[in-house]
Design goal:
With about 150 residues, this protein is of the alpha+beta class. It folds into two domains: about 30 residues, no CATH class; about 110 residues, Nucleic acid-binding proteins (OB fold (Dihydrolipoamide Acetyltransferase, E2P), Beta Barrel), CATH 2.40.50. It has four helices and six strands, in the order H-H-E-E-E-E-H-E-E-H. A five-stranded mixed beta barrel has the order 1-3-4-6-5. The termini are far apart.
């Protein structure tokens, strides 16, 4: 009931054919899509597999600012695990650097694995489909780099 009311209020027309509707048992819309904009926490870590495929992963920080009941401005930072595979992994490895501001589009993955202590651990990861670098990190000037080496 809620879905049909929402669809009518948004003026959405169903594109599902009667055959598709019977296959999905009346459920018409599924989506697992995430768009995050945040700062890269460290340079990407690359993993190469035996079959030649590659995975590149990095932490991404997103922040939310809000006021508490007393009017104080507070900030909460959340960290997300981002993983790219295939050609995107190679591009991430080459282009993404620590402290860059990036936009990541992908989907949420919930996994469970057993760690070395034989404890089952739940893990949430963003499986990246695409990314854009919005602001490249500042590179040290050559003069500053030489001073820090001495």
């Amino acid at each position: 009931m809620f879905r049909s009311t929402l669809a009518r209020s948004l003026n959405v027309k169903s594109i599902a054919t009667p055959a598709l509707q019977s296959q999905t048992r009346g459920i018409r819309y599924y989506m697992n899509k995430v768009i995050l904009i945040g700062n890269v926490g460290s340079d990407p870590k690359d993993t190469k597999f035996e079959d030649g495929k590659m995975m590149s992963s990095f932490p991404l920080a997103t922040s939310r600012r809000y006021k508490d009941k007393d009017g104080n401005l507070l900030e909460h930072t959340a960290w997300h695990r981002i993983r790219f595979t295939g050609d995107n992994a190679e591009r991430v490895s080459r282009l993404v650097k620590k402290s860059a501001l990036v936009q990541v589009e992908g989907s949420i993955r919930y996994d469970t694995y057993t760690n070395k202590e034989n404890v089952e651990v739940n893990s949430t990861t963003i499986s990246g489909d695409s990314f854009k670098i919005l602001v490249f990190p500042k590179r040290p000037e050559e003069g500053q780099a030489k001073e820090s080496e001495e």
